[in-house]
Design brief:
Blueprint (H helix, E strand, L loop, with lengths): L3 E3 L6 E5 L5 E5 L13 H4 L10 E3 H6 L12 E3 L2 H19 L4 E2 L14 H11 L5 E3 L7 H8 L3 H4 L6 H7 L2 E5 L18 H7 L7 E5 L11 E5 L6 H14 L5 H7 E2 L1 H9 L9 H8 L3 H11 L4 E5 L10 H14 L8 E4 L29 E3 L3 H6 L4 E4 L2 E4 L5 E5 L3 H4 L3 H7 L5 E6 L4 H4 L3 E4 L8 E3 L6 E5 L12 H11 L3 H5 L4 H18 L7 H7 L1 E3 L11 H5 L13 E2 L3 H6 L23 E4 L15 H5 L7 E4 L1 H6 L7 E5 L4 E8 L7 E3 L8 E3 L7 E3 L24 E8 L15 E2 L9
Parallel strand pairs: 5-32, 6-17, 7-14, 8-9, 8-12, 9-10, 11-23, 12-13, 17-18, 18-19, 24-28, 25-27, 27-30
Antiparallel strand pairs: 1-2, 2-3, 4-5, 4-19, 15-16, 20-21, 21-22, 24-31, 25-28, 26-27, 26-31, 29-30
The chain binds ligand MGD (2 copies) and molybdenum atom.
Family: Belongs to the prokaryotic molybdopterin-containing oxidoreductase family.
Cofactor: Mo-bis(molybdopterin guanine dinucleotide)
Keywords: Metal-binding, Molybdenum, Oxidoreductase, Periplasm
């Protein structure tokens, strides 16, 4: 059988179905550094956790809509499609009539699958817009703090992240890369929407040849690229701001900062200067002060500050640093530090955010708009910052602060999720479970019985990208991929589009939603519209039929060399920044004017709410997994190979393990006051002492905690039972899932069985007549 082209967030690839019905995959032939995550794909295709048929929670079917604490603990009953669609359409209609469209939460955060047309959120939002709108969500879990902070201080995400200095420019011009959070190669095989040539992954893999010096500042040694020249600086988690301030103070008092740059291109340095000198609070933020907080010796801090002024220096911050309490501060402080060096806008110098976080930051690929499904207009203005989901469900009517505004949580009756997994992505899952008990109805579209599907009332089975046709490509992708259908839909799975079209029909808006097009007609339509745009810019783009037959179209290349903010540097009057002052705001009078104690008007060290103590002495790093994409692929071969007795590996320093009588391969219990999970211990010197690391993405597999009445124990190793549902600050209200404080002990006693690899209790499909 022939190989068909397709793509995914971890890269373009070829796939085919074997005679026995299994799936074979191989990397795209032009990919210099294919992602290991591809190895998870074949097992997922017909895994027992695929949702076979529409299913409804028994209590909802029997008692009707209403708050239910039993969500996630009850049997499901399979229904035929017509019956299930009637129930969903009827409930949407009831909620909008009785409570208004604001009572429908359609924020539905999540990565879903690649593919421009079948993008689940776009489909859901378009559908909900045609039926009168929905309460939406803003920003992302990825960049909750930065997306709000950056526009105040330097420009929006598009200006800063999408136009980051490219890797070839850095390799050629940078002498010293000061990498807060390191440059973790594990993350760059992923780009939302896809990537055909993994340029950043290849660059990091061959890093040794670049000759560039790196200071990798991270609690983990292996956040640095392999064979790099430079040093690993282990840092106490959450204290980078103190280190940055210590560096800034040294530059200031040794008069090594670039006053001319600060005068011409920045505002408010004098306020920051007084803060550094401790004029207001009596505490100079000198290297000694910083050392006491971050654990890096003061002499090293001073030496690095000097070294940074000796050549071209790029200061970069991974996204993880802002996924913490006061996560706005490290990003802002790094910007201020780079401004003091005066190299912003010069090739190889300045400020970066997200090298090593994701594949497209630094990738020199083309910067083009790709075909997208129009979502229509949402008549409902109500929204939440995305990570406030549990607060919203638990506290309807409560007022809260966000970016200078006073907002009120709406009263949500119906939650509709397609393409995301809040029981993967949200913090404090025991609290999220309580929150999911509140609405009248929860509808979820999923290919798999994820924890979110298990906590829903109505679960509709959807196809995966391999089971439908689409057009694929990511930001900075070199190719547009014709995603051919490789497999028939699994059992009764339908496309999100087909489901929404059927609901739209029941609610009398079929034409508005579908515009009379089949999926293939939509692909042709979206492609044609996009082709016209590109042709108007002078690009020769083939007709759809030719593109589809070829399986891909190589996009017109972008400039290899890009320097962030080069035009601003060259002429700040003609190219002002989109900030209130048109310059880099080291002091923001707008943010200061909000009066938030947790986000003052300049970068500042703000101690976290929780500090290590005898009960919870270890920092937990809950970072992105190297073996899967979030929860996606956790049932696949690559993810499973890393587990210990089926549990997610927890890396712990041998000294910390010895103190606790833990040996490599032991099952451990990781816990704090919010919850507990089991994990498999991996002793490792890659982790600094006092820190343990447990990646996100092990499917939530909860039981009642035998050691703590009323508590939740995840027997598989999901760190979000431990993280706090606490916002970054009143400014951004971003997610802070990266860190928690925990204790670890050896698990003794019998090992509870894993339930997540099987579907929940299910009563199989019966005909419509005999369902209640
Ligand atoms: N503790 C902690 N938590 C974190 C983070 C952290 O650093 N620490 N990081 C956060 C970050 S940055 C992110 S982005 C989030 C990620 O959180 P999510 O994006 O919610 O995680 P995914 O597992 O990618 O969930 C996508 C879901 O969509 C489903 N899906 C795939 N294709 C389709 C489709 O075509 N249709 C439908 N309907 N569904 C589909 C998949 O099966 C999967 O369950 O996690 C956040 N959570
Ligand atoms: N393989 C794979 N790649 C992915 C993803 C995935 O799920 N799997 N998810 C993608 C997504 S959605 C996103 S948003 C990006 C996220 O990109 P990031 O947020 O940058 O990724 P993380 O792996 O969470 O964190 C990067 C590193 O920061 C370090 N770190 C944590 N806390 C601190 C700290 O306080 N100080 C310092 N100096 N370092 C710290 C950790 O050791 C960690 O390995 O990754 C993307 N890439
Ligand atoms: Mo993310």
């Amino acid at each position: 059988m022939t190989w068909s082209p397709t793509t995914s967030h971890w890269g373009a690839y070829l796939a085919r179905r074997t005679a026995a019905g299994a799936l074979e995959v191989r990397p795209h032939p032009e990919d210099p550094a294919p992602s290991p995550l591809l190895g998870n794909v074949p097992d997922g295709v017909h895994h027992p956790t695929r949702v076979r048929a529409p299913a409804v929670r028994r209590g909802w079917l029997e008692d009707g809509p209403g708050p239910a604490r039993r969500r996630g603990r009850e049997e499901f009953i399979e229904l035929d499609w017509d019956h299930a669609l009637d129930l969903v359409a009827g409930e949407l209609d009831r909620v909008r009539r009785e409570h208004g469209n604001e009572a429908i939460f359609g924020g539905s955060y999540g990565w879903a699958g690649a593919g421009r047309f079948h993008h689940a959120q776009s489909q859901l939002h378009r559908f909900l817009n045609t039926i009168g709108g929905y309460t939406s969500s803003r920003n992302s879990y990825s960049l909750g703090a930065s997306l709000v902070l950056l526009p105040h201080v330097v420009g929006d995400a598009d200006a800063v992240l999408r136009r980051a200095s490219t890797w070839p420019t850095i390799a050629e011009h940078t002498d010293l890369l000061v990498a807060f959070g390191g440059l973790p190669g594990k993350n760059v095989s992923v780009t939302p929407g896809g990537v055909t040539r993994h340029a950043m992954a290849a660059a990091l893999r061959n890093f040794g040849e670049s000759g560039l010096e790196v200071v990798s500042i991270s609690p983990l040694r292996d956040d640095a690229p392999p064979r790099f020249w430079g040093r690993w600086w282990p840092i106490r988690p959450g204290t980078d701001v103190a280190l940055m301030l210590g560096l800034a103070h040294t530059l200031l008092v040794e008069d090594r900062h670039d006053r001319a740059f600060l005068d011409r291109y920045c505002t408010g340095f004098e306020v920051f200067e007084r803060y550094l000198l401790g004029e207001g609070d009596g505490t100079p933020k000198d290297a000694r002060w910083a050392a006491g907080i971050c654990g890096i010796p003061a002499t090293d801090i001073r030496a690095l500050a000097r070294r940074m002024t000796e050549g071209r220096t790029l200061i970069t911050v991974t996204w993880s640093l802002q996924r913490t309490e006061h996560g706005e501060q490290p990003v802002w402080a790094a910007l201020a530090l780079a401004a003091m060096l005066g190299q912003i806008g010069l090739p190889g110098g300045g400020f970066g955010h997200g090298y090593g976080s994701i594949g497209d930051v630094g990738d020199p690929g083309p910067l083009l708009r790709l075909p997208t499904l129009p979502q229509g207009r949402n008549p409902v203005a109500t929204f939440i910052p995305v990570a406030r989901i549990a607060d919203m469900l638990l506290h309807p009517g409560r007022a809260y602060d966000y970016n200078g505004r006073r907002l009120t949580y709406p009263d949500i009756r119906l939650v509709y999720w397609a393409g995301g997994n809040p029981f993967h992505h949200h913090q404090d899952l025991a609290r999220l479970r309580r929150a999911f008990g509140r609405p009248d109805t929860i509808v979820v579209h999923e290919p798999y019985w994820t924890a979110t599907a298990r906590h829903a009332d109505i679960v509709l089975p959807v196809t995966t990208p391999l089971e439908r046709e689409d057009i694929g490509g990511g930001r900075r992708d070199t190719h547009l991929i014709a995603m051919h259908r490789v497999l028939p839909p699994h059992e009764q799975a339908r496309d999100d589009y087909a489901i929404f079209a059927a609901l739209a029909g029941r609610l009398g808006v079929a034409e508005a939603f579908t515009e009379g097009r089949t999926p293939r007609q939509w692909l042709e339509h979206l492609y044609r519209t996009w082709r016209e745009e590109l042709r108007a810019q002078g690009h020769d783009v083939p007709a759809f039929e030719e593109f589809w037959a070829a399986g891909q179209y190589r996009l017109p290349p972008g400039p290899e060399h890009v320097t962030l903010l080069a035009d601003f540097r060259a002429d700040p009057e003609r190219h002002p920044l989109p900030t209130p002052s048109g310059r880099i705001e080291i002091f923001s009078s707008v943010i200061a004017g909000f009066g938030y104690p947790d986000c003052p008007g300049h970068p500042a060290w703000l101690p976290p709410a929780e500090r290590p103590d005898r009960r919870h002495p270890l920092y937990l790093i809950a970072n992105q997994p190297g073996t899967r994409l979030h929860g996606q692929g956790d049932i696949g071969a690559v993810s499973r190979a890393a587990k210990i007795a089926g549990r997610e590996p927890l890396r712990i320093h041998p000294d910390d393990a010895r103190e606790r009588g833990i040996a490599d391969g032991d099952i451990v219990r990781v816990f704090n006051d919010r919850g507990a999970c089991l994990a498999g211990a991996r002793l490792s010197e890659e982790v600094m002492p006092g820190v343990v690391q447990l990646a996100t993405g092990a499917w939530f597999d909860p039981v009642d905690d035998p050691d703590r009445p009323g508590g939740v124990l995840c027997v598989h190793g999901n760190p979000n039972v431990l993280t706090a549902d606490r916002p970054t600050s009143r400014l951004a209200q971003g997610c802070t899932g990266q860190h928690a404080l925990v204790q670890v002990e050896r698990h003794t006693g019998p090992l509870p069985p894993l339930r997540h690899p099987s579907p929940p209790p299910l009563r199989p499909l019966r005909s419509q007549e005999d369902t209640p």
